[in-house]
UniProtKB/TrEMBL annotation:
Name of the molecule in the record: Glycosyltransferase
Ranges where the Trehalose synthase N-terminal domain occurs: 47-198
Subunit composition and interactions: Homodimer.
Entry keywords, A to Z: Carbohydrate metabolism, Glucose metabolism, Glycosyltransferase, Transferase
GO biological process: glucose metabolic process
Top-level taxon: Bacteria
SUPFAM superfamilies xrefs: UDP-Glycosyltransferase/glycogen phosphorylase (SSF53756)
Coiled-coil stretches: none
Protein family membership: Belongs to the glycosyltransferase group 1 family. Glycosyltransferase 4 subfamily.
Length: 482
């Protein structure tokens, strides 16, 4: 029998935000915390998703929950477990909600039976823990089917969808038809963009963009020489002579050292410590288009053979993300395309699977890689929001992104990054990357403005305020119900 497991989160005081806020902003944050405590007095705020590591939801939850606990709110995190068949079905739903066919497999009665059976097993354990009046926030397609059971037990159920499609098609409709029975029991639904809201949820939806935690290991300040040392010890760049120790500070304040290396496919040696890097950090997912990034970079080098830059395509170890069965096949496809390239290109492209045994070590490596990058790209074909771009912008890196999904909300073209209108337009993608590599003044200006844009719109302070408003709306709907 499949049972969900709890991920324990330590409380973190909101006081860390005070130095960065005005007096009015700090007072508003404290008022929001008090309001949340009052609204949830005697109840627990549960978050339920399908993986404890890898991907945006697993990045978002621990830090937001830590601040909620620090504000005195009893909030807990449960992770459902599933079979390979279940995760194949939910990956198919993931693609369909993006408007993509994925592997083209059916979403029929047998898939419905498998999906329901797995969630029925998980629900048995949740029903022991969740009490009437508790708030349960279910994340993404993997958990939507839990809503009727939990609502029937007296929980106030919200479903959050982190993905979507700007131009719904038959695939999107197919996904919503599959999910509709479960979602009928959710009081509210939360989306990252208004364009993602389907008609069946139009009367009970709220738009809340995601955020990053600026104090997380992945976003903490890091000196350039330390970033270079971390990448050197990981094998992503050559280790500089007399490099400092590859150290970072854990969430609990304890210093730590990066000790694990990345699994890297390359021809020849690592880039020199000072070599400009074009970097994409993403899960190994076809919708992130790592093959397109590789081919776009190949076009760039063919047109500008003297351009000094290497490409690093980085993602988590394919064995580490339980709910993504396509990762290994996607990476194999990228490697296959890499092998087809001429020798001079293979020497300039590095495919890195980052260690995930220690999530905070992994976060430190990603932090170092993004800070070291000359250009950070996210050439997604579809994208729910794209927190990797948010992270790079916070680090004042110049970014090139596809104008899809939440990427176009974050990146204002020519203001705090460059957007490629058609994600399949490789010449346009190559031209944007070349421009940032060849125009350092422009790159620096875009990076500075990107940092400020994230500070104002995409940090935990704004997100916590939105969650308090969500609880208000939840209570308001309950009072209107007959």
């Amino acid at each position: 029998m499949l049972k969900p497991f709890e991920v324990h989160v330590q409380a973190r005081s909101l006081a860390c935000f005070q130095p960065a806020l005005t007096g009015a902003e700090w007072a508003a944050l404290q008022a929001n915390a008090e309001q949340a405590r009052d609204q949830l007095a005697g109840h627990t705020f549960w978050n339920v998703n399908s993986t404890a590591r890898g991907g945006g939801v697993a990045e978002l939850l621990p830090r937001m929950l830590a601040y909620a606990r620090g504000a005195g709110v009893d909030t807990r995190w449960m992770v459902v477990q599933g079979t390979p068949a279940f995760f194949r079905i939910t990956k198919r739903l993931h693609h369909a909600l993006h408007g993509s066919r994925g592997d083209g497999s059916p979403l029929g009665p047998s898939e419905r039976a498998c999906y329901d059976e797995v969630l029925r097993d998980n629900a048995e354990e949740l029903l022991v823990l969740v009490r009437p009046g508790d708030v349960v926030l279910l994340h993404d397609p993997q958990t939507a089917g839990l809503a009727p059971t939990l609502a029937a037990a007296g929980a106030r159920v919200i479903w959050r969808c982190h993905i979507g499609c700007d131009t719904p098609d038959e695939e999107v409709a197919r996904a919503w038809a599959f999910l509709a029975p479960g979602l009928s029991a959710a009081r509210l639904a939360v989306f990252s963009r208004a364009a993602y809201v389907p008609p069946l949820l139009a009367d009970r939806s709220v738009v809340i963009p995601p955020s990053i935690d600026i104090f997380a290991v992945k976003n903490q300040p890091m000196a350039p020489e330390v970033a270079s040392a971390i990448l050197g010890h990981t094998g992503l760049v050559a280790l500089a002579p007399e490099a400092p120790e590859p150290v970072f500070t854990r969430t609990d304040g304890v210093p730590a050292r990066v000790s694990r290396g990345a699994d890297i496919v390359r021809l020849g040696s690592a880039p020199a410590p000072g070599a400009p890097l074009v970097v994409q950090v993403s899960r190994w997912d076809p919708l992130k288009d790592p093959v397109g990034v590789l081919r776009g970079f190949a076009l760039l080098l063919r047109e500008s053979p003297d351009l000094r830059a290497d490409l690093v395509l980085a993602g988590p170890s394919v064995l580490s993300v339980a709910d993504d069965p396509e990762a290994a096949a996607t990476l194999e496809n990228v490697i296959s395309v890499w092998r087809e390239q001429p020798r001079f290109l293979r020497q300039r492209v590095h495919l890195a699977s980052l260690p995930m045994v220690d999530p905070e070590e992994n976060a430190a490596i990603v932090n170092a890689l993004q800070r070291h990058a000359a250009v950070v790209v996210q050439k997604s074909l579809r994208e729910g929001f794209g927190l990797t771009v948010t992270e790079a912008m916070w680090k004042a890196r110049p970014v090139v992104a596809s104008a899809v999904g939440g990427l176009q909300d974050q990146v204002r073209h020519e203001v705090d990054g460059l957007l490629v209108r058609d994600p399949g337009d490789l010449p346009a993608f190559a031209a944007c990357v070349r421009r940032l590599l060849e125009e350092p003044v422009l790159a620096a200006r875009l990076g500075t403005q990107a940092h400020e844009h994230v500070r104002v719109h995409y940090t935990a302070v704004r997100h916590l305020s939105d969650l308090v408003a969500l609880l208000e709306q939840l209570d308001s709907r309950a009072q209107r119900s007959p």
